[in-house]
Design goal:
Radius of gyration: 16 Å
Number of strands: 9
Order of helices and strands: HEEEEHEEEEHEH
Number of helices: 4
CATH superfamily: Alpha/Beta hydrolase fold, catalytic domain
Structural class: alpha+beta
CATH class: Alpha Beta
CATH topology: Rossmann fold
Shape: globular
Length: 174
């Protein structure tokens, strides 16, 4: 019953962004997923995938993930490193990850900066970045995320990443 209430609360956030399933992933997703766009500026939108916790989404932390590069999609981490489903190197089938990060955390994968992955910028200058502009866009996107998912505002927040994400993370935290 508590799990159903938790899921209902999450599903009320951005129903248009709810992911209903993935090809080749069996009988549905193990927890609610959302995918869509977060506004970074009037002309920039950052693509996100939000995977809710398998344990206690109402109380588990929100972990924000950035891949680096710069220019590497955060979907790489979602589907090859620590997401609920993975595609191993040299394989062509998606399979459950036995130890996904969303086992005890809500994970927000953000494709950043604009121009990376499915993230978009309308104008050519929207795809010219430095560390400060990327962090300002990421902060705006996170504010948009929490306006759409206000039920997670009181959860602990962790910002993480790898490679050049090691630059994105402290700039955003600052």
């Amino acid at each position: 019953m508590i799990a159903m209430i938790s899921i209902a609360a999450v599903l009320g956030a951005r129903p248009k962004d709810e992911v209903l399933g993935l090809p080749e992933c069996g009988n549905g997703l193990p927890s609610p997923w959302f995918s869509g766009y977060l506004t970074a500026s009037p002309t920039k939108k950052l693509h996100y995938v939000f995977v809710t916790s398998l344990a206690d989404p109402d109380n588990d932390p929100v972990v924000v993930w950035f891949n680096g590069g710069p220019g590497c999609s955060s979907l790489l981490a979602l589907f090859q490193e620590h997401g609920p489903f993975i595609i191993d190197d040299g394989e062509y089938q998606i399979k459950p990850n036995p130890e996904p990060w969303n086992k005890r955390a809500n994970i927000l994968y953000i494709e950043s900066p604009a121009g990376v992955g499915y993230s978009v910028g309308v104008n050519p200058e929207d795809r010219i970045h430095n560390d400060m502009t990327q962090s300002k866009d990421a902060l705006a996107a996170m504010k948009d995320f929490f306006s759409g998912f206000p039920e997670f505002l009181n959860n602990p927040l962790y910002i993480s990443g790898e490679s050049y994400g090691g630059i994105y993370v402290p700039y955003l935290a600052w």
